[in-house]
């Protein structure tokens, strides 16, 4: 299939394709009661559709790159939701902060260092 | 009717505009100053929370506009299918190592948070809410409910962890001499889910692909392992 859409039309259509795969992922997750979010399944399905050539890369790439690049912006509203838990966080903040910091570093160390080690070996 | 719609549109527009101003203002500041700790996401969250509190604005009013922005997180995760496709050869070549690292990361993630909190005398609910800390919010909510934690607290911890991992992650990994781009992306996604992935995407396409994959694998591994590991730790009397 030759993609004849250019510029903003292609961008908008690409956004539509991403939403379509999101809907597909959500539907399958609900139907099969899988323990993953629909968006993660949608990601895998999109990669597979691209591999099989069902979706042309040029169609989804511009929209995908914009969303991925601006993900930090999309996380602001969920972060502001912390305002709802300020009392709870304040009550046990020392424990919560210590445990979160230690655990975050531990996961970074475990995954990062192990993966590096495994790749170095072969 | 028309007037009510107008008021709702005003609330939404204000929420979106305030978020955009805070975020892109902070990004301009970060580029201007070159100071990495001025992470735009972190700065925007702090500024908006301070503004809402100072102005006595209820979170629900902000959320009317905010959810128009956060809705796009789900399609953004789907969009990670593009780097995943482009980097498929790189990822397939390291398939076994990837799975081993994520399994280790999941066990460490569940165990470390809960054990430290228990040792410091946190209440049982808080300890259990810490178990799914490293995974993406929708999965974490389900896990917290299943292991006897508080879903709302778990959600807050997931977000706090994401900010922490995204801001400090790359520097910590450099200090640990983790150089491989797949390893960096994988670690950021495993430790800080979507927020780590947003940071990984700034580093490059390989990092973004590995990070997106880590969100999915880490979520599934933790959903399966958390109930088992917590049962074990409880039986041992450690938490």
Commentary on this structure:
- The complex is a heterodimer of chains A (122) and B (239).
- Chain A has helices at 7-32, 38-51, 57-69, 71-74, 76-80, 86-91, 93-121.
- With 122 residues, chain A is mainly alpha-helical.
- Chain B is mainly alpha-helical and 239 residues long.
- Chain B is 85% helix and 0% strand.
- Chain B contains twelve helices and no strands.
- Chain B has helices at residues 2-33, 40-55, 59-70, 73-79, 81-86, 88-93, 95-119, 124-130, 137-147, 151-175, 181-203, 205-236.
- In chain B, helix 1 packs across helix 2 (40-55) and helix 1 (2-33) packs across helix 3.
- Chain B is globular, with a radius of gyration of 19 Å.
- The relative contact order of chain B is 0.11.
- At the A-B interface, helix 1, helix 2, helix 3, helix 4 and helix 5 of A face helix 1, helix 2, helix 3, helix 4 and helix 5 of B.
């Amino acid at each position: 299939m030759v993609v004849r859409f250019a510029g903003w039309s292609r961008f908008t259509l690409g956004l539509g394709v991403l939403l379509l795969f999101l809907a597909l992922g959500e539907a399958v997750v609900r139907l099969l009661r899988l323990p993953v979010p629909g968006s993660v399944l949608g990601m895998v399905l999109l990669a597979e559709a691209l591999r099989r050539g069902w979706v042309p890369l040029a169609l989804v790439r511009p929209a995908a790159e914009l969303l991925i690049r601006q993900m930090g912006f999309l996380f602001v509203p969920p972060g502001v939701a912390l305002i709802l838990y300020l009392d709870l966080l304040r009550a046990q903040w020392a424990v919560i902060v210590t445990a979160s910091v230690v655990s975050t570093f531990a996961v970074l160390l475990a995954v990062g260092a192990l993966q590096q080690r495994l790749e170095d070996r072969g | 009717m028309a007037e009510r719609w107008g008021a709702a549109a005003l609330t939404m527009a204000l929420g979106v505009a305030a978020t955009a101003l805070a975020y892109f203002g902070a990004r301009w500041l970060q580029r201007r100053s070159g100071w990495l700790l001025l992470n735009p996401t972190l700065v925007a969250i702090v500024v908006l929370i301070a503004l809402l509190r100072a102005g006595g604005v209820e979170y629900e009013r902000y959320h009317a506009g905010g959810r128009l922005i956060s809705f796009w997180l789900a399609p953004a995760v789907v969009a990670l299918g593009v780097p995943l496709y482009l980097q498929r050869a790189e990822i397939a070549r390291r398939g076994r190592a990837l799975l081993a690292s994520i399994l280790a990361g999941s066990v460490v993630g569940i165990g470390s948070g809960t054990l430290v909190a228990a040792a410091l005398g946190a209440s049982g609910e808080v300890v259990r809410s810490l178990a799914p800390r490293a995974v993406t919010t929708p999965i974490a909510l389900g896990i917290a409910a299943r292991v006897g934690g508080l879903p709302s607290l778990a959600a807050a911890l997931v977000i706090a962890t994401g900010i922490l991992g995204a801001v400090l992650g790359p520097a910590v990994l450099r200090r640990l001499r983790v150089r491989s781009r797949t390893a960096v992306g994988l670690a950021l996604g495993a430790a800080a889910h979507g927020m780590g992935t947003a940071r990984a995407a700034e580093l490059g396409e390989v990092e973004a692909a590995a990070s997106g994959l880590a969100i999915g694998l880490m979520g599934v591994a933790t959903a399966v392992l958390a109930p088992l590991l917590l049962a074990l730790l409880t039986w041992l009397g450690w938490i």
